[in-house]
Fold this sequence. Notes:
By secondary structure, this protein is mainly α. It has one domain (7-103): Arc Repressor Mutant, subunit A. It is 38% helix and 7% strand. A hairpin with a 2-residue loop joins strand 3 and strand 4. Helix 1 (7-16) packs across helix 3 and helix 2 (26-33) crosses helix 3 (39-51). The longest helix has 13 residues, at 39-51. The two termini are 13 Å apart. The structure holds a DNA duplex.
Amino acid sequence: MPLKESFFQNVYEVVEKIPCGRVTSYGAIAEYLGLRGSARMVGWAMTASHAGKNNVPAHRVVNRNGLLTGKHHFGGPKVMQQLLESEGIQVKDDRVIEFEKMFWEPGKEMVKW
DNA sequence: TTGCTGACCGACG
DNA sequence: CCGTCGGCCAGCA
């Protein structure tokens, strides 16, 4: 198994593993990937992911404040919120309600091989 | 190679 | 509270 893919591929896999009804932050993913201070790369990877065909639930990824910063990149400012609400995540004022409780750390609930 | 950009984050004033 | 700056790394002209 290739451990070193393009860093987007790595991001995609992590994001796809986000459980339903959970959210995570760019910084958390970045840190998990070892990019710690470079959360920008994660967001950039998200942009690339939405551009092409993908099953990456980028709507489950928000910024550190739980704000839906990338909502405009879903083709509409309301798309992201609807997607989140569709999964049971309440969103108010572009922010995830009880974000702390919905927060999911990459690898935390993953099974150790 | 250089320079610019980016869905971020943290620090500073 | 708000604006600004630096850092971080990858892609592209």
